[in-house]
Specification:
This is Alpha/beta hydrolase. The protein has one domain: Alpha/Beta hydrolase fold, catalytic domain (Rossmann fold, 3-Layer(aba) Sandwich). Helices cover 40% and strands 17% of the residues. Strands 1-2-4-3-5-6-7-8 form an 8-stranded mixed sheet, sandwiched between helices. Helix 5 packs across helix 6.
Length: 272
């Protein structure tokens, strides 16, 4: 299915699950510059609601374009997805960078979001608060493994560090890379730079303190991105619950599927 943004960019999207359900679930993938890898997540909730997946602009199955690569533009694209499917209000689930995008959308359009599920994000503090520890944890988990040849295999090796279960880490990372699309490095660089500049401001903390939308934060206890970074968000939000899954890394639905589904289902059922 194709969604056309107001500036004419074609976005790939897919809808599954229960047709016509109240407050359907829209998924926001990570990156920036990657693509939707939420097939397993969609399958977890298709028996109770409509689930919508999409590839962000210039990424995955969406049209290649020259941007613009800004959070404001991506928030507008997400709203184009909402309008395309005729939704007055949605539940949002975002993972990693997608959690940041979903939060940004919710802050911009709180009346259009019934529930925000914030998965494996990095909070609202400065990127400098956690990035050095992340790089150190990444190096430690990879334990000096030599990068293989080929971009896909190099990325698979890096993604394998996101899993706490080291015996199955490469297998799970390879599944994330199937299908494989070209990474949009221009998108990644621009949005990463924007985050370093814009995140951690008093204005952002104040906006989160005023957010009257229920939020579920889901963390893997063994994510190599320090979970303490998320404290900044949890402390600011007035209506927040937090679930920390033990023995779990950055992709909690893969390593703790039952606990992840239970936590998210609880949030969706509770509603506003």
């Amino acid at each position: 299915m194709t969604v056309i943004t107001e500036d004419g960019v074609r976005l790939w999207a897919a809808r599954s699950g229960v047709p016509g359900s109240t407050d359907p679930l829209v998924l926001c993938h990570g990156g920036p510059g990657l693509w939707d890898m939420f097939e397993d997540v969609a399958a977890m909730f298709e028996d109770r609601t409509t689930v919508i997946r999409w590839d962000q602009r210039g990424c995955g199955r969406s049209e290649r374009c020259d941007g613009p690569w800004t959070t404001e533009r991506f928030v507008a694209d997400l709203d184009a997805v909402r309008r395309h499917f005729g939704l007055d209000r949605t539940a949002l689930l975002g993972h990693s960078w997608g959690a940041q995008l979903a939060l940004s959308y919710t802050l911009a359009h709180p009346e259009r979001v019934s529930t925000l599920v914030y998965v494996s994000g990095n909070g609202i503090g400065p990127v400098s608060d956690w990035h050095a520890a992340y790089k150190a944890n990444l190096a430690s988990r990879l334990d000096g493994q030599e990068p293989p040849e080929g971009e896909r295999e190099q990325v698979v090796l890096q993604w394998s560090a996101d899993f706490a279960d080291r015996e199955r880490a490469l297998e799970r990372a390879r599944r994330m890379a199937d299908p494989w699309f070209e990474i949009n490095y221009a998108c990644n660089s621009a949005l990463t730079t924007e985050s370093r500049r814009a995140w951690g401001t008093p204005e952002l903390r104040a906006a989160c303190r005023d957010l009257d939308v229920p939020v579920l934060i889901v963390d893997g206890a063994e994510d190599i991105r320090p979970r303490s970074a998320v404290d900044s968000l949890a402390e600011a939000l007035p209506r927040v619950r937090r679930t920390v899954l033990p023995g779990t890394g950055h992709v909690p639905w893969a390593e703790s599927p039952d606990a992840f589904r239970e936590a998210v289902t609880g949030a969706l059922t509770a509603g506003p």
